[in-house]
């Protein structure tokens, strides 16, 4: 146990939290933006896999990480729109369309990987590029804090910038207002002349873009190269973090950080305490359930308090009136 | 709408065709279609078996399937068999073909022996082999208990033993770059399950055979995709290398291993591969990963097939209905000795390995197996050697 505490005191622990949070945060934002506009994007996991592969193949071909990143984003947007096409144009259930993309992500990426390189399990015969790491001036010289905050992949910083961007988009722009209106009530939005389908397509495209960033981080930041199924459930965790964060960008970010933190602890705990690995590996998820319980308890208490206050004020009002 | 449908359909057709084309990729070097007229090379008086090799994947995997192909092609060279390889593809979408192809060749009855492998084919083989009781099958790396099937399995605990010997020898040699004075070696498995722990138990015992004081840091990637989550494997490796002074990590987690190799390359440690010669796999495009790969633990499908066929043909053995377990002494498991291996391991290590082989052969060394072990026993073993306690 002492070992674990020591490990948690090191800057590399804090650094690892941010690194592990990054893909989850992108996925969470992808879920946030879709659900705000009333379309649920279940296909984030699958989009991540395709984008991760696209990043590797195209950065490997061109030896440019910019091209790799852009193609990951294009693939993400394309798949987001594809889900939209199936759901909005062909009237499939959007959840099914998302599941289809996820299933496709498992088998389809193997197929394209094989076409591009002849590899099957991992992109071992492609020399790909990664998004450069950034050392932040000034901050990097601060002891401990500098080691935690500086030297991350450019995408890690961009993930946190995206939180602000998504927030601004949703709450400070006309487009965001329309998105939220469509999300609240499609018919009402339609009746005042908002093009519901257009807004839904835009939301899914942006959601795909963010999922594409999550995928690009997996293969061009976290790792250098593609492994089949490498998203490993992070897209689904993003969906959970979105729900935990009440569908808000800031709340989603906090939930993602919680997941990142729990994962970092789980990585350090194995073998150090007398618990079986399975329990330690489920630690992040247990933490989520516990925090959800606390959250809903506190909301319930607050609601009770408000209710009680309301009743009492009613009573006093009644008294006053009588 | 119609137009779109037409485009979609033609796309599917193209993809389908491309998939077929991919399967018969000539780089793989199959011998299909060359099976006729090979009888001249066969030595006189020997029975030549007609064999079909069904691969639930593609050649060129530098692993199981290539090893199987190599074994059969060696047998053909020596005039024992003539064979044909059918590549059935590796993806989920190919799965339906696996069973139907197996049924087809069984129905044809043209072949004396049908060779299939891996646990993915196990249930199909059970089903089909029951329907064709007169057809003989060989199943490698998966035991099928039927009177017309000869099964070959590999003792992964003895493979672990061998790698344990190598890793322990490696970590005690501080003259090697990035090998520290702490005698700690690492193990990362896909999940905490018996077959992975079978590798681990052997690994620990092999390491102790070299040096009883050695510590083994055993971790699992876990989760739903423990064998394809390189990012988590990388995090685990980072902690191992920086916190616990591990200088060599053995990958027993398939595709997650790339994450371990990356961590080793970035932080200055060494990587040991599994199933295939991972150094060779990396060498093409990721030289920095190949450079930190010491060796890889292999299941020698080639050796095992050669042994079984020679036994049948030369000794008239009838392995049908039995399971042959092959370990270190039988050459069923081994390590990749090309590339970096010779830089680190000289003659001394061969003597140690020979000693271990002899010990296993005469029964003076018994490598424990995780199969049949209680969970608590495995845990106790893990804790005993853990550097984290």
Summary keywords:
heterodimer, A: 322 residues, mainly alpha, two-stranded antiparallel sheet, 2 strands, 1% strand, globular, B: 389 residues, alpha/beta, Rossmann fold, 2 domains, 6-stranded parallel sheet, 6-stranded mixed sheet, 14 helices, 12 strands, 17% strand
CATH architectural group of the largest domain in chain B:
3-Layer(aba) Sandwich
Cα distance, first to last residue of chain A? 66 Å
CATH domain topology of the largest domain in chain B: Rossmann fold
How would the global form of chain A be characterised?
globular
One letter per element, helices H and strands E, the order of chain A comes to: HHHHHEHEHHHHHHHH
> What is the average per-residue confidence, as pLDDT of chain B, rounded to a whole number?
85
Walkthrough of the structure:
The complex is a heterodimer of chains A (322) and B (389). Chain A has helices spanning 2-9, 11-36, 44-62, 65-89, 94-117, 145-149, 154-172, 174-184, 186-191, 196-222, 234-244, 249-269, 277-281, 283-321; strands at 133-134, 152-153. In chain A, 76% of the residues lie in helices and 1% in strands. Chain A has a domain at 12-235. A two-stranded antiparallel ribbon of chain A has the order 1-2. Chain A has 14 helices and two strands; from the N terminus they run αααααβαβαααααααα. With 322 residues, chain A is mainly α. By secondary structure, chain B is an alpha/beta fold. Chain B has two domains: 31-154 and 301-326, 3-Layer(aba) Sandwich (Rossmann fold); 156-298 and 346-385, 3-Layer(aba) Sandwich (Rossmann fold). Chain B has a six-stranded parallel β-sheet with strand order 2-1-3-4-5-11, sandwiched between helices. In chain B, strands 7-6-8-9-10-12 form a six-stranded mixed β-sheet, sandwiched between helices. In chain B, helix 2 (64-77) links the parallel strand 1 and strand 2. In chain B, helix 2 packs parallel to helix 11, helix 5 runs antiparallel to helix 13 and helix 7 runs parallel beside helix 8 (257-267). Chain B is globular. Chain B starts with a helix and ends with a helix. At the A-B interface, helix 1, helix 2, helix 5, helix 12 and helix 13 of A face helix 1, strand 7, helix 7, helix 8 and helix 14 of B.
